[in-house]
Each structure stands twice: as C-alpha cells, then as structure tokens.
Design goal:
Layout (H helix, E strand, L loop, with lengths): L5 H5 L11 E12 L3 E5 L7 E4 L7 H5 L6 E10 L7 E12 L3 H4 L11 H6 L8 H23 L3 E2 L5 E2 L11 E2 L26 E3 L4 H11 L1 E9 L12 E10 L3 H22 L1 H16 L11 H10 L3 E4 H9 L2 H4 L15 H12 L3 E7 L15 E9 L3 E8 L4 H10 L8 H5 L8 E7 H9 L20
Parallel strand pairs: 3-5, 6-10, 12-13
Antiparallel strand pairs: 1-2, 1-4, 2-3, 4-5, 7-9, 8-9, 10-11, 11-16, 13-14, 14-15, 15-16
Helix pairs in contact: 5-7, 5-8, 5-15, 7-9
The structure holds 4-amino-1,4-dioxobutan-2-aminium adenosine-5'-monophosphate and magnesium ion.
Length: 483
C-alpha cells in the first residue's frame, strides 16, 4: 500500500470526503493516551493525526513499543472523529514500529513533551527538527526560499551562482575565512619568510566569499537583471543575536537602474515575501503568533511587542516604508530624548556608523514603520558605492525593520571608471586585484544598483524568533560549529 502524507489528509476540510478511505501513514509518535489514542506527526505539517487502537487487537510486544519519539507505521480506515480537536482520525488495524525510542532516554532529551529552554534546544540541535517550534520555523524558512526564487523569476531576473571561493574582499571589511591546502605546520615560505601563497592550491590567497555582489554585477551588465542566493561567510567575532559566521544572502543586481529603482525593488520584494508567508504558511504562522503572545505575557508591559506577529507582517505589506537620508536621521537622533538624556550607549554625530540602538530608535520609536535610509557618508561604506554630487555621501541604502534593525544593505554602484579608480586608491585596493571589475566600466558602462537581503534576518522577522541561531538549521558562530 502507498504511504499517504499526513498534511494531505488534514488539509481536506470536508472530512466526509475522506471517510472510509484506507490509508497508510508513517511518522513519529508525539503522544499516547489512555492506551488508545496515538498522535503522529510526519513533519509535513504542524498538526498531528490521531490513530485509535483497540488494545485487544495487538500483541503485547508491539504495544510496549508505542512510546513517545518512536517511529511508527499505521494502516487503517479514516473515520470521522468524535473528539473535539480533530475532524478525522484513523481506525488502526495494522501497526508496525519502525524505530523504537527508549522512554528513559527520551526523558533526557527535548523530545519529552514539555517546555524546554532555547539553550537546551540548541544543544540538542540534532533533535530539534522534531519539535513543533522548529518544524514551524523551518517549514516557513523553506517557503520564503521558494518565494524568493518565485519573486525574481516572475519579475524577469536570472538566478546566477557566484563563487563561494574567491580572491576578492567585496565589502572591504577584512572579515574573511582563508581557504588553503598548505600544511599549517610547515607552509611554504617566500624569501621574506612569509607564507608563499603562490604554492597554495589556487596559486594565491583566497577566502570564502563575504558577498557575491561583484560577480553579480558582471552578470547584470550582460543579462540585465540577475540575483544570487547562496551561503555567505563572515569571520566577525561578534556573538550577537543577529550575526552568524555562515548565513544566506539574496543579492539582486539590476542594470540601467539608480538608487530609487533599488529602493522600489527592495520594498516591493519584502512586501511580496511577507504577503507570501501570510497567505501560504497560515498554520505555522498562527502557531508562532500564539506562542509569542504567551511568551509576551511573561515580560514586563513596557518590553512587550505593541503588535502581534501577524499584525507586524500585515503592517509591512500594507504601509509604505519611510524613506529618509542619513543626514536627516542624524538630526532626528540628535533631537531625540534618549540622546538628550544620554541613554544611548554610543555617541551620535554626523559621520558615525549607526549602531543598532540608533536604528531601532528610528524604526520602533520615531517612525514605527520600516525605514529606508540613504546617502551615507562615503567613509563608512564600501568602495563600490556611487559617489553623490556633494562629494561627501554615497548612494547607499539600508532597510531597517522593527525588532531586527538592518535587514537589507544595498546601493547604486559607481559606474564611472575614473571615480571608481580613485575610490580603489582611497581604499587601498590594488587595481590588479579587481582588473576584471574595473574593465566592465570601460565597455558600455551603465548605471546599476542592487542590494543584499539576509535570509536569516528575514526569517527572524517573519517567525518572530529573537535569536538568529534559531532560524538556521545548523548555526555557525564563534566557538560553535556543532553538527
Ligand atoms: O550590508 P551587507 O554587508 O551588504 C553586502 O554584502 C552587499 N554586498 C549587498 C549588495 O549590495 N549586494 O549585507 C547585506 C545583508 C545585511 O543587511 C544583513 O541582512 C545580512 O546581509 N548580514 C548578515 N546576516 C547574518 N549574519 C551576518 N554576520 C550578516 N552580515 C550581513
Ligand atoms: Mg550593511
């Protein structure tokens, strides 16, 4: 008999249509009550299906193995349920235990059905996929990834795979992981006694990519509209709730476009993605929404979210993002209560890199809406951003979201070869390293723009999870590369 996926049964709202049908399901036991009711989940959806057994019909040995966490196969007839929690259930007539789970050992794990701390759930990251919470988060993460491809495909973008191993430091932040096959104990040395990378695998010093942007630009300057979606690596030694050493980034790049086109694209894209989740992930979203409401009750009144998770998503889809310049933002911050009362940890003045406390003030207190900040001081942004006519600022853009801070960073790119050359010199970037990038500015150079959207920051926003480690299956952070 062919196996039926539990979500296929439960998504049928009219249980009358299914009654009498014979099914075979396979999954993990979530609960077993009164020696009669087994709750089974197979990961296809949040809900469990109930199977009802007549104790007398099964062998003692099988019954003993019906314990929480074990894997089971059940054949039976779908019947309408008299229980209030479900419309339909399975009258089991054949049971097979596929994989047992020792109850005493299960007690020591997060499979035990009770509330566990987030730390413990992370420590048992190998088992957390079995929990309702992480099932919901990772199903939503999948849906967002699918929606990203759908959005760009439907809007005429081509998916470009940019290299993971690269010789360039696109962001110039120097936070890179080296890739080498040299023997760390006795690496080849040059005459100056330094490591001789010409003897290394690629004949030069290479690293894991911090961004696919520079390569995406090359592709956009031929294919018109492209996007990347891949893993990105940063050796930032910051153990915050918003940083990972390995994260996934989506980087669209469009030719014949300026910073305003870039803002329109990012706003449209983020609205589409939030709307997609609202429309297509309702069961998991409702679960996360209700969970958050319960969690919020534990917090003091002034630290609670003013809006529920679903309301925050709807707010993003229904309201225009506030667009202001960096200089305007600095003025607002200088006039703000926390600045005047010296409540900010970091100083505020024109030229500073905004700290997350400043970003959150703008989004959560001043505008109470997503904010797009543009025209940052050139010194605090990457070399490739287009210089504005004031010669002080560049056409950069950061999108700031409530509870998250920066979710997107992007810019219009410097397309003028002479200005770009000067920028390389100012930033101490040898032209020989980026000759291929500069060359695109020599042959039919055009205004172009793009941005980087951090997948995990978006998943945090959409699920309401507050730690980035809980929205990626296997987080990589300083001192932590388990599983
Ligand atoms: O602002 P960033 O550094 O921009 C770039 O890399 C550009 N090359 C993008 C472009 O214009 N094509 O990073 C973009 C986004 C951030 O806004 C944030 O959402 C995410 O990537 N991000 C991180 N997410 C998790 N952990 C980290 N360490 C992150 N660093 C950046
Ligand atoms: Mg940034």
């Amino acid at each position: 008999m062919k196996r039926t996926i539990i979500s296929d049964i439960l998504k049928e709202k009219d249980s009358k249509k299914l009654e009498g049908e014979k099914v075979l399901i396979k999954g993990w036991i979530k609960a077993f009550r009164s020696n009669r009711f087994i709750q089974i989940n197979d990961g296809s959806c949040l809900a469990t299906i109930q199977a009802v057994i007549e104790y007398e019909n099964f062998e003692e040995d099988t019954l003993k193995k019906i314990t929480i966490g074990s894997a089971i196969s059940i054949e039976g007839k779908l019947v309408s349920s008299i229980g209030s929690k479900q419309n339909i259930e399975i009258q089991a007539n054949k049971i097979e235990i596929i994989g047992t789970a020792n109850p005493e050992e299960v007690q020591k794990t997060i499979l035990q059905p009770k509330k566990h701390s987030m730390e413990l759930l992370r420590e048992q990251g190998h088992l957390r996929f079995r929990t309702n919470l992480f099932g919901a988060v990772f199903r939503i993460r999948h849906s967002i990834s699918y929606a990203i491809h759908k959005y760009f495909n439907d809007n005429g973008f081509y998916y470009i795979n940019t290299p993971i191993i690269t010789g360039s430091d696109a962001e110039g932040a120097g936070e890179m992981f080296r890739v080498s096959t040299l023997d760390p104990k006795t690496p080849a040395l040059n005459e100056q006694g330094e490591v001789d990378y010409t003897k290394d695998f690629f004949g030069k010093n290479v690293n894991l990519t911090v961004s696919g942007q520079l390569e995406a630009e090359l592709a956009a300057l031929g294919l018109g509209k492209v996007y990347t979606f891949g893993p990105t690596f940063r050796a930032e030694n910051s153990n915050t709730s918003r940083h990972l050493a390995e994260f996934w980034m989506i980087e669209p790049e469009i030719a014949f476009a300026d910073i305003h086109d870039d803002m329109d694209l990012t706003e449209n894209c983020l609205k589409y993605l939030c709307d997609y989740v609202l429309k297509n992930c309702s069961e998991d979203l409702q679960f996360l929404n209700d969970r958050e409401i319960q969690e919020e009750k534990q917090k003091p009144q002034n630290q609670r979210n003013e809006m529920s998770l679903m309301d925050r998503l709807k707010f993003v889809t229904e309201n225009p993002f506030k667009r202001i310049t960096y200089s305007e933002a600095i003025k607002i911050l200088l006039n703000s209560k926390p600045h005047k009362k010296k409540k900010f940890k970091f100083p505020v003045e024109w030229g500073i890199d905004l700290q997350s406390e400043h970003e959150r003030y703008l989004v959560e207190k001043e505008f109470k809406s997503p904010v797009i900040l543009i025209d940052y001081p050139a010194e605090i942004k990457a070399f490739y951003m287009r210089q504005n006519d004031d010669n002080k600022t560049v056409a950069a853009m950061d999108v700031l979201f409530p509870g998250i801070g920066e979710i997107v960073g992007g810019s219009q790119r410097e397309e003028r070869i002479d200005v770009l050359r000067k920028k390389c010199a100012d930033f101490n970037i040898p032209e020989e390293e980026l000759w291929w990038y500069l060359e695109t500015r020599k042959f039919g150079s055009v205004p172009h723009a793009g941005f980087g959207l951090g997948l995990e920051r978006l998943v945090m926003f959409v699920t309401g999870m507050t730690n980035i480690k809980d929205v990626i299956p296997f987080p990589r952070t300083p001192q932590n590369a388990n599983f």
